[in-house]
TrEMBL record:
Pfam families: Sulfotransfer_2 (PF03567). It comes from the Eukaryota. This is Carbohydrate sulfotransferase. GO terms for cellular component: Golgi membrane. It comes from Pavo cristatus. It is an enzyme of class 2 (transferase). Keywords: Carbohydrate metabolism, Glycoprotein, Golgi apparatus, Membrane, Signal-anchor, Transferase, Transmembrane, Transmembrane helix.
Amino acid sequence: IFPKPTPGASEAMSPRAAIPGEVRRAAASACSRSRLRSGSTVLLPSMLMFGVILASSGLLLMIEKGILAEVKPLPLHPAAGEVSRRVETHGGDLEREVLRDIRNRTIRSVCGQPAMPRSVWELPAGQRRTVLRHLLVLDGALESVDVKLKMDHKSDLVFLGDMTPDEINYRLKNYYKFVFVRNPAERLLSAYRNKFGEIKEYQQKYGVEIVRRYRKNGGKSAGDDVTFSEFLRYLLDEEVERMNEHWMPIYNLCQPCAVRYDFIGSYERLNEDANRVLEEVQAPSFIRFPERQSWYKPVTAETLHYYLCNTQRRLIKELLPKYILDFTLFAYPLPNITSEFCRQ
């Protein structure tokens, strides 16, 4: 979340606000850290409403395809004065706008139901603590934008959960709030590969228990050999509100009904959407979204295909209901695990 810019704000910036390397009163929604777990009840719509949501999403997707089919190519020689104009209704721009519209409509449909929370104060205490401890607030100044460390592991970051109720209300009302989402299947696979393949802390804290629970004679495992199927079985048995933030559903982690986000970005368009956020908050020109670190190993379509198609379909189908709101609200397709797809 960022303080929302006001007309003429850029001209009225204080001298300190203009100093390179500092950003005043900046705040960012980054669902990235957890301090408390809770076993409180999860608010979910009825199955009937799920049917309405899915049908509506399908209709919107068909409309999208129709709209995109009608887009005409740009002229080879634009008229004078048109060269530098950004064409918002062409190609990727149109796709982003349609996706944003689908998400907004679906979220309004879900969150408009009587049982859904309208604010963070309507959430059960455990759910409220979870979301407030993941809404990042950089309330002050960044010493540098040359980010070399993993920001979510820094100890001096401020979250909404660190603030008083009045401070929380003020920021939720007046700040620019944004969140980034990711295809749920890719997100789970990425968490599995990173946490159990590279981080000893997760291997010891979660991996040892997962192997002990789901593998015969697995008591001697160091937790570094968890299979993807074992991980999914663990997720299936785990209560959503007790999950680690790296695999807790985004709906439960960031509560898009209780928090009205001004912008929902996509991991699949991370750089473009991050730049959009910087534009919206009128960030100084020297602020740039950091380059991807060289050690990062992205999940490719081929990698996802391999893992999904080598996992029991029954297990994937049983797990989907826990993440159905992430697929539905953010317009991600359900994973394709048909025999025909897996033969490719």
